[in-house]
């Protein structure tokens, strides 16, 4: 028997998506602060400590412990619960914070646990537990791009993550390995073995431009990869907007300089 609330949903949009969740009376969905887009009048919003799950008990210490775990993953101390307190059906929607895709995850079908990058979680049916996952391998923690701490979502209901660009979902057979840029990993099931591999080779290391380490994901299990990590997008924006970048307004060449470097009119 499932313990999480059962919710219906539809994902709207293409590049700037939102997930619209339909709630029956007394059903609740939890979400990250700032993800809210709109809701029907019958839905009531409540700020709660942590994720509101009851698996660790309802005592004050357990609530503080649950909320404190979220701080370690860089998330807000609080979450927001949206409960349908009227009759019939009611809808609430949550939007992704940057261009990309929203990934629906049925935790019941995925073994009850998903491990994901620290900022991936968007919302979930009430009863899901959002906590931390420590990387047990030293190399993975030091060079894996996400540090020693990642995020885990546990439960048996629906959860939703978001990531940048397009999403690639792959199912790996036992022993099958895929090498991935560390920033492109969005999420994977608990049966996946996550490790780090040195790129190797002097030219690859110093001139390859792809970093010094690969992430290796070994099956069996499912993985979700993103084409545009937000860190990669941010670094490009900063590079173009840096003080050292060319400013056409005060340049002698101005637009003529663009013709020579391929940024032509």
Q: How would you sum up this structure, described in words?
A:
This protein has one domain: Double-stranded beta-helix (4-Layer Sandwich). Helices cover 17% and strands 40% of the residues. The chain is built from five helices and 19 strands. The radius of gyration is 21 Å and the shape is globular. It starts with 7 loop residues before the first strand and ends with a helix.
What number is the mean pLDDT? 78
The helix/strand series, from N terminus to C terminus, equals: EEEEEHEEEEEEHEEEEEEHEEHH
Our Rg estimate from Cα atoms comes to 21 Å
Provide the structure class: alpha+beta
Strand order of the largest sheet: 5-6-3-10-13-8
Percent helix, as a range, is: 10-25%
Please state roughly what percent of the residues sit in beta strands, choosing from under 5%, 5-15%, 15-25%, 25-35%, 35-45% or over 45%. Answer: 35-45%
The tally of structural domains comes to 1
How would you describe the shape? globular
CATH topology: Double-stranded beta-helix
Number of helical stretches of at least 4 residues: 5
CATH class: Alpha Beta
């Amino acid at each position: 028997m499932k313990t999480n609330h059962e919710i219906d949903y539809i994902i709207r949009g293409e590049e700037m998506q939102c997930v619209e969740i339909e709630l029956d009376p007394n059903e609740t969905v939890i979400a990250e602060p700032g993800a809210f887009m709109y809701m029907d009048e019958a839905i009531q919003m409540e700020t709660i400590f942590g994720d509101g799950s009851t698996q660790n008990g309802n005592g004050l210490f357990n609530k503080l412990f649950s909320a404190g775990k979220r701080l370690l993953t860089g998330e807000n101390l609080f979450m927001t619960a949206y409960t349908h307190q009227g009759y019939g059906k009611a809808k609430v929607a949550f939007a992704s914070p940057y261009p990309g895709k929203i990934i629906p995850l049925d935790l019941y079908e995925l073994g009850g646990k998903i491990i994901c990058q620290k900022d991936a979680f968007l919302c979930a049916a009430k009863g899901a537990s959002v906590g931390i996952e420590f990387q047990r391998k030293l190399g993975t923690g030091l060079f894996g791009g996400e540090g020693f701490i990642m995020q885990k979502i546990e439960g048996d209901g629906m959860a939703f993550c978001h990531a940048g660009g397009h999403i690639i979902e792959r199912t790996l057979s036992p022993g099958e390995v895929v090498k991935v840029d560390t920033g492109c990993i969005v999420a994977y099931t608990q049966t996946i073995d996550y490790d780090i591999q040195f790129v190797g080779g002097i030219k690859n290391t110093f001139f390859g431009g792809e970093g010094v380490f690969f992430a290796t994901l070994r099956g069996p299990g499912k993985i979700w990869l993103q084409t545009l990590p937000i860190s990669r997008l941010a670094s490009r924006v900063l590079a173009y907007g840096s003080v050292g970048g060319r400013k056409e307004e005060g340049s002698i060449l101005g637009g003529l300089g663009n013709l020579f470097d391929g940024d032509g009119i």
